[in-house]
Amino acid sequence: MTEATFNKSERLFYIMHHLSNHDTVTANDLADHCQTTKRTIYRDIQFLQTQGHEIQAQGREGYRLLIPNMQVKSKLTKDEWLSLTLYPLLSTGITSKEHPFHRSYRTGLEKVMRMATGETPNPAIAERIRLHARTEDAVQARIMPALIQAMSENLCVDVRYYAMHRSEWSERRLEPYYLVPREGHLYLVAYCRMRQGIRVFRLNRFEEAKVTDVGFAIPKAFSIDTFLKQRWSIMEEEDPFEIVVRFSPEAAKYVDEEEFYVETKKFNEEDGTLTLKVTVGSRQEFLRWVRSFGPDAEVLSPVSLRRELADEYSRMFRMYQGDEEKLW
């Protein structure tokens, strides 16, 4: 499960934005978020310091921005700043001329590239790098500006959202904390004032979003990394439980190279198989992944899950019995 990496301009924006909204942040955390190395983060911090940003090392706590002002933001229009914070992880199709923020993205990128490198970017490069495999989502492009504005100004947002598991629409007031990409989709981690708790919302299920003038603050005790740590799927609603799966030698080489969001233990056996032990909070999402390996994956425990899969595969076997085609 790989994520798009940031280029230098995008990393600089992300680092300044993150420092402006957190007391401290470590190089490890920044490297994870930007999908790069700590050495690259060190160079980025040094570059920002040479540009006049007062970033101070705080030992094990990481870095602190002493004067949290976004000098880069002041050189951009509001639309340019929003467009650059959306791209590349948050907006589908922004490199297309049909995207409502395409022009702002292009002019903003030119300004940032001049700041970072002193050079004007090649106008064709953005068209040649396709970071999203999915087609453009018109709803997402329409909803995103409101969410980004609400997040950047720490304002609540009133939304209309479709809950898939209940098959119903609802109006809610959310405190938008984080936007998280997972498996080709974007999710909003937010405090829901209607449900009185932190919930996860898939972006393409919003029908509308309106920024309010009601402020909020992310609790200092809340950690997005801790929140996501035990989530195989971001949309998890169950209590965590342990699953052990054995993969055939053919599948083992692919599983062994996977980078998982949750903590896992891998055991490479002498016969070439691989045993994976993982604690997850979403059985159905995990099983969808296991099923993709077919007979090359066997659930060893818990027994209840083995029985469930045995029953499912028995029904599937009966479904495909016989040599006759089925009419439709």
Automatic annotation (TrEMBL):
Family annotation (PROSITE patterns)? HTH_DEOR_2 (PS51000), WYL (PS52050)
The record's section on Pfam families has: HTH_11, WCX, WYL
List the Gene Ontology MF annotations in alphabetical order. Answer: DNA-binding transcription factor activity
Q: Which residues form the HTH deoR-type domain?
A: 8-63
Report keywords, A-Z. Transcription, Transcription regulation
Q: Which SMART domains match?
A: HTH_DEOR
Keyword Transcription among record annotations: yes
Q: Which domain of life is it from?
A: Bacteria
Q: What is the protein's given name? A: HTH deoR-type domain-containing protein
Q: What is the lineage of its organism?
A: Bacteria, Bacillati, Bacillota, Bacilli, Bacillales
